[in-house]
Amino acid sequence: MKSAVLGFVIMFVAMFAVATSCSITHRSEGFACTTTSECNDGRQCIDGFCVTSGGNQIDAANGDAPRGDASNGCPTGCTSCVVGTHTCTIDCSVNPSECSQHVTCPPGWTCDLRCNTDNACRSGVTCTGTTACNIACSGKQACEQVACGNGKCNVQCTGQNSCKNIACNNSCACDVACSGVNACTGGGITCTADVCKFGLGCSSLGPSCHGC
Question: Domain limits of the chain?
Answer without folding.
Answer: 31-60
